[in-house]
UniProtKB/TrEMBL annotation:
InterPro entries with a match to the protein in the record: GroES-like_sf (IPR011032), NAD(P)-bd_dom_sf (IPR036291)
Gene3D superfamilies: Medium-chain alcohol dehydrogenases, catalytic domain (3.90.180.10), NAD(P)-binding Rossmann-like Domain (3.40.50.720)
Xref: PANTHER family: ZINC-TYPE ALCOHOL DEHYDROGENASE-LIKE PROTEIN C1198.01, ZINC-TYPE ALCOHOL DEHYDROGENASE-LIKE PROTEIN C1198.01-RELATED
Keywords: Oxidoreductase
Species the sequence originates in: Rossellomorea vietnamensis
Protein name: Zinc-binding alcohol dehydrogenase
GO MF annotations, alphabetized: oxidoreductase activity
């Protein structure tokens, strides 16, 4: 069986590569992709060769990491999964893939892929929030209401039950979404936010200017978790960090994608606003043009849903 894989060959150079799939190992499964997504914050800097964490990129690179599909075949040692089951995985922009069975999340038939695909980033956001351990009475500020910021709000409000979640976001449409996701106060300008007013901050914008605001807005001994990829701006610690003895925490990937899905899938059934995160939809053969359009600012989606022939 042949596999099509979207490969980055250089700056803004994408190509579909065809290869023969190898035989299954006993603990692996073969998946046919039904849908995927472009995670713009992570993928666009790589596409534009502007990722500050990767100044000397090596090519070729695989692309994408959010995949939803149907199992076609299982290895002899695979338990708990069978042909026909829907699963989430992390292999990216490919039409078929072979993955280890332990690395997928089984998706109930009742869950649509527009909800299921969000489990990955929701789990990433949840890990950062859980590192801070905010209590319902704490005051929390989130910078950036892109997909990561909005899923962070959702987790804060519905998992940790924090009552006061405020957001800084310059884009009007995203501010409206932040309100719908449960934010109490949504600010467009930095001078609207009080100094020393928050117990915790979550950085989801990848903006050094927003990070500086977090340092200013936290109380003495406050804590910040950086959830953005850090691939856009470099962050610097100023006098607020030292004078207020703030604590800075990094977070990468999710805490447990399978365990998180048990909460997220159930919660998503009563949170239809989650599907608004996918505000642009394409077929997989349109991926190359879509990356170019985003890069040239012809379109400015929050998140792109990609569907495949199945």
């Amino acid at each position: 069986m042949n596999q099509l894989s979207l490969t980055l060959l250089g700056k803004q150079k994408l190509k579909w590569a065809r290869s023969e799939l190898r035989p299954l190992e006993k603990d692996e499964i073969l998946i046919q992709t039904i849908a995927g997504a472009i995670s713009i914050g992570a993928e666009l800097p790589q596409y534009n060769e502007s990722d500050v964490t990767d100044p000397d990129p090596v090519y070729p690179k695989e692309t994408g990491y959010e995949s939803f599909g149907r199992i076609l075949k299982t290895g002899q040692a695979v338990k708990g999964l069978k042909a026909g089951d829907h699963v989430l995985s992390f292999y990216g922009h490919k039409d078929f893939a072979i993955v280890n069975a332990d690395k997928v999340v089984k998706v109930p038939e009742s869950i649509d892929y527009t909800h299921a695909l969000l489990n990955t980033l929701s789990c990433d956001a949840g890990k950062g929030v859980l590192k801070l351990q905010p209590q319902p009475s704490d005051r929390v500020i989130v910078t950036g209401a892109g997909v990561m910021g909005l899923l962070t709000i959702h987790f804060l409000k519905n998992y940790t039950k924090v009552k006061q979640v405020d957001v800084l976001e310059p884009d009007e449409h995203r501010r409206i979404l932040a309100k719908e996701f449960g934010a109490v106060n949504v600010y467009s300008r930095e001078n609207e936010i009080s100094q020393d007013g928050y117990d915790f901050g979550l950085e989801c914008s990848a903006s050094s200017k927003a990070f500086k605001l977090l340092l200013r807005s936290l109380k003495v001994s406050g804590e910040i978790c950086i959830l953005s990829d850090g691939n856009k701006d470099l962050f610097y610690l100023d006098e607020n960090f030292f004078n207020k003895e703030l604590k800075l925490i990094g977070s990468s990937d999710g805490w447990d994608y399978q365990e998180h899905s048990k909460w997220f899938f159930k919660e998503s059934e009563s949170a239809e606003y989650l599907t608004k995160l996918f505000d642009y939809k394409i077929r997989h053969h349109e991926l190359i043009d879509c990356f170019a359009d985003i890069s040239m600012l012809k379109i400015n989606p929050l998140k792109v849903l990609v569907t495949y022939d199945s």
